[in-house]
Write a structure and sequence with these properties.
The complex is a heterodimer of chains A (273) and B (231).
Chain A lengths: L1 E12 L2 E12 L3 E5 L6 H8 L7 E6 L2 E5 L8 H8 L2 E4 L11 H15 L6 H21 L15 H13 L5 E5 L7 H16 L4 E4 L3 H7 L2 E6 L2 E7 H5 L6 H10 L12
Parallel strand pairs in A: 3-8, 3-9, 6-7, 7-8
Antiparallel strand pairs in A: 1-2, 1-4, 4-5, 9-10
Chain B lengths: L2 H37 L4 H16 L2 H16 L3 H13 L4 H28 L3 H9 L4 H31 L11 H12 L3 H27 L6
Classes of the chains: A alpha/beta (273), B mainly alpha (231).
């Protein structure tokens, strides 16, 4: 069964219709790459999943249960919204780390704040246990993204690639069901792109469910299980990445798009769009 | 009068100046925040009222505002509130000028809160939306995002403009002598009038300079303390 199912997402900003009825399913452990030219609605779609943008119409199911219905979005209370958001993690294009906190504090801030709100965590011993567990978890995540020696550093002391890896670890610290990436390497120099993609590949290999909006065709081709190609607010192609990048690709537009961003060649290196 | 006696006499006035300075800061720094929030409010009438209020308070001389606060209760309500307070504190506690000082403090606190609110607004609006969004997707509440993520970044950005205002404030306290509060300049003027001594008036500058020097040092230290992060 699909982990995430989206039915008929519509979104307009003023008179501009950005999403024109998006359907999408993501299986558990699947990596979905969302590609398309700028203005095709990929980022808006991702922001809808993370409840940063409220769709005008459409429904979202998680694990078969209704998670969001645009029809009663207005009734949604702030607290419910926060709970639902936590099913998703989001890694931003510009990292958006909290500059005044160290790497490790960035990872632990949100879980700690949640602990303090939790009525079941009033007990001191429970809190201590939670905090030591959280510390271990943070250490583990930093190891995973290859930054176990930088836990005490401030974001301004890190390279862009390192910052983005911290951002990935921070999103994972809340154990989301689905991790979303919004062009995670677009703000990086080409030589820093590789280290971020490497972390994302290892997450894909661990069967983390991921939705990646990207211009990295090589990543989409190699690491993604499926490709969703968006064109002018609609899904133009949705299929396995082998079909998308193979010679028998059924979508004329997708072929043209891949051709244009990879300079006419089949994707191989680490080109940026 | 010896130099030491005159210094002590002026110092008594400077204590009032420092009192006005400290209480104004203590009141205006927090008071500026709700005014800033009102000015940024999405509810249009709230933002409009707040902006008009800030316009008036910043647009009218502070000296005039002191007069207005001091005289309006008597003129409009036929009750000399601050004069009564003067008498009350003098008779019961032996404190001079208390009512006038309260009037000055009200005028100063409101005036500086309005200036601070605009500095806060600029600081808050300069923080990128990404910081809010990062907090949101991490499941934080609006107030957690503001107090745990945004606030310190705002503080760092507003230290230089706030330093300017704070330095201006100690010199503005001299305006209190327009309603005969015995701050340092008033004390020096009294010396000129009663002892025909004009130099103490110029000597007051040394007190301001010394205090501003101290402030510059402290504010510089605060700025340095916040330089461990950039953003």
């Amino acid at each position: 069964m699909a982990l995430l199912e989206i039915r008929d997402f519509h979104k307009s900003f003023g008179k501009t219709e950005v999403l024109k009825g998006i359907d999408l399913t993501v299986g558990k452990g699947e990596t979905l790459a969302v590609i398309g030219s700028s203005g095709s609605g990929k980022t808006t779609l991702l922001r809808c999943l993370n409840f940063l943008v409220t769709p005008d119409r459409g429904r979202m199911y998680l694990d078969g249960k209704l998670l969001f219905d645009a029809g009663d979005a207005k009734k949604l209370k702030e607290d419910e919204l926060r709970e639902r958001r936590l099913h998703f993690g989001l890694v931003f294009q510009n990292f958006n780390l909290f500059p005044q906190y160290t790497v490790k504090e960035n990872l632990c801030l949100a879980p700690k704040l949640r602990m303090r709100e939790d009525p079941e965590m009033k007990d001191r011993a429970k809190r201590a246990a939670f905090l030591s567990e959280l510390d271990e978890k943070a250490e583990g995540l930093l190891r995973k993204v290859g930054l176990s020696d930088r836990g005490g550093a401030y974001p301004c002391e890190l390279s862009g690639g390192q910052q983005q890896r911290v951002a990935i670890a921070r999103a994972l610290a809340l154990s989301p069901d689905i991790l979303c990436f919004d062009e995670p390497t677009s703000a990086l120099d080409p030589e820093l792109t590789a280290e971020v993609l490497k972390v994302m590949r290892s997450l894909a290999a661990d069967r983390m469910t991921m939705i990646v909006v990207t211009h990295e065709m090589s990543f989409a081709a190699e690491a993604a299980d499926r490709i969703l190609f968006m064109d002018r607010g609609a899904v133009e192609f949705d299929g396995p990445s082998s079909a998308a990048f193979g010679p028998g690709c059924t979508s004329e537009r997708l072929r043209a798009f891949i051709g244009s961003v990879s300079g006419g060649e089949r994707p191989a290196g680490h080109e940026t769009a | 009068m010896s130099f030491l006696e005159i210094t002590a006499f002026l110092l008594r006035g400077f204590r009032i100046s420092l009192l006005i300075f400290a209480v104004t800061l203590a009141a205006a720094i927090p008071l500026g925040l709700p005014i800033a929030f009102c000015s940024m409010s999405r509810i249009k009438p709230v933002a409009a009222v707040s902006k008009v209020f800030v316009w008036i308070v910043r647009g009218v001389p502070l000296m005039l505002q002191i007069f207005i606060i001091y005289y309006v209760p008597g003129l409009v309500f036929h009750y000399q509130l601050f004069g009564d307070l003067d008498r009350y504190f003098l008779l019961n506690h032996g404190i001079e000028d208390a009512g006038r000082i309260i009037a000055v403090l009200i005028a100063f606190a409101v005036n500086y809160a309005c200036y601070f609110s605009e500095i806060y607004r600029g600081g808050i609006e300069s923080i990128s939306r990404g910081q809010y969004e990062a907090g949101q997707v991490l499941g934080m509440t609006k107030s957690q995002i503001f107090f745990r993520v945004i606030l310190l970044q705002v503080v760092k950005r507003i230290v230089p403009p706030m330093s300017n205002e704070i330095i201006t404030l100690i010199k503005d306290t001299a305006l209190a002598n327009c309603i005969m509060v015995a701050e340092i300049i008033k004390q020096a003027k009294d010396l000129a009038a009663t002892k025909a001594l004009i130099w103490p008036l110029f000597y007051t500058g040394a007190f301001y300079l010394a205090f501003v020097g101290l402030l510059t040092l402290l504010l510089g230290r605060l700025e340095k303390k916040l330089s461990y992060f950039s953003g």
